[in-house]
Amino acid sequence: TLHQAAFAEEVTAFTLAWFEEYFGQPYHYGKLDQVAVPGFDAGAMENAGAIFYRRNLLLMDPASASWRQQKAVAETIAHELSHQWFGNRVTMKWWDDLWLNEAFATWIATKAIDAWKPEWRLWDEFQADRTRAMATDALVSTRAIWSPVKSPAEAVEQFDVITYEKGGAVLRMLERYLGEATFRQGMRAYVDAFKDANASGDDLWEKLGEASGEPVAPMMRTWVAQPGFPVVSVEAVETGERTTLRFGQRRFFANPKEAAAGSDARWHVPIVVRYGVDGEVREQRALLTEASADVTLEGRADWVHANADQIGFYRLAPERGLLDALLAKGLRHLTPAERVGLLDDQWALVRSGASDIARFMDVLGAFGDERDFTVVEALAGRLDYLAYRLVEPADQPAFARLVERLFSGQLAELGWEPTAGESQETAVRRATVIAALGDTARLPEVLAEAERRQPAEQADPRAIEPNLAGVVVRLAARRGDAARFEAYVETYKRRKAAGAPPQESARYLYALPCFESQDLILRLLGLIFRSDVVPQEQIGILLQQMLGQKAARMPTWQAIKSNWGDLKERVGAMGLSRLVRAASGLPIEVRRDVADFFAKNPVEEARRALAQALESLDLDAELIARERDRLAGWLRAAPHGSRAGMEASA
Fold this sequence. Notes:
650 residues; alpha/beta; 27 helices
């Protein structure tokens, strides 16, 4: 097993030295042990000098681990090491400032590993985390990053996407606004002033303000002390040889009724506009503090994107003309993060009722030639949601043809086998494309090919390219019978008993929820609740997966209710909160049952998670009622009309 720690050693050697230089202080503790702990419920824990990890977040064989799994190990180690300064050396005064520890560690871990491996493009992949945070923060039931804590249960509720991902994104936005060197100067002053003591968010704002000469505290209180975030509207006013942009801000809600009602909330929004003038790409900065403001650009803009590198934590709502110009003239100039942001913003406007699904599908069509792995992942993820919630069974064939038009050309380019010297980006894109064609479109030929290849991986975990191996194992489960199910269970048990890298055994454990036979779903639930096959720390993860699988979600919900007393003892407070939140994947019709069950079986640590799950179900119901027929009409009209971009990609 020792060789499985070699990668972690390499990460530690770089990041420990990097943090010492960043903070301007040497590592403070007399030793540094990093321990892989069997049965460790938490992902990791930053005990001073002896950090504990779940096995799959410390141990790994790069020869059989996917790129994403390598990144997860590296970022987790960097996250925990950063706490040795920010969390241990300087400690929050109280749990209401938990975000100060965790948001900072989320942000700086990405920054540190990006410095080590810039080719990993972690900031581009961070967009997916930012998107998850914005989805939660668009709910009425969200909370401010800084929230008062009066009980242990309220402290547990702080360990969520708002603390980690929103907090990290907001710190990144502040660093961009102040400048990297100035921000680091303020951070060093903060750690030096409060080392071996306690501090608060206000203390950090004070030091950053002193370093920058900027009013950091008033600005950051708008982001940290109030819930939600703004949607920034943009319209163009031509004034002679220059374009003037008229910005407006209001709180963004996913709920159309709340969006229409409006809010008095305002933010200090640092905006970096990227725009084109006669083929030249330019940038201009502005700080939006009021409800609206005009900004005149240097020249007449051919296209405009008012969130450069997608660092600002806000949604963009450009007027129709600006959006059309961006899609026609500016799309190829946008960075991958900006293209992902454009897709996410346009989808968010559909959720809030400011746009409709037909318009979004036309925007999607502009990405027919997309080949960047992060943008392809975003496209595939959005299509997967549509298949899960909005596509009627009668329209599934038309939807499958749409997915096929978007991705089959890429599969023809890439094939199933890696080529000599290909990049990890190419390998990840291949895996994403095959997953979309197999899982979302359910193309029989793709599922059959996965079934043909899976036994080779079962015999040798290195037989299939690591980024594709997990996809093949999952797709082969879709139509799998009892013999294949039992083979998966035995492969997992055999690899685990042999001390294989945890990523190799997890391929089979986490593929079990993908079997769709009702008998096999019940068999898996039996393994979870009535055997010792599934380790305690993975029970909640498996059940969350199953609540998001159409075939498994209702049997899983019934099993959760029937085994609730046992589950409460085995999953832990944080695990229960995440499980309750995952109930948002259940059928809309079960909403009342979910509410009634948790009214009778309250989980104090999951009160907000329950409110968010119920609100998400309500939002999905509203979206289905408003947009399902429109999507059906759009699909039935394909391949005509504005889908030319998709057609060209085939």
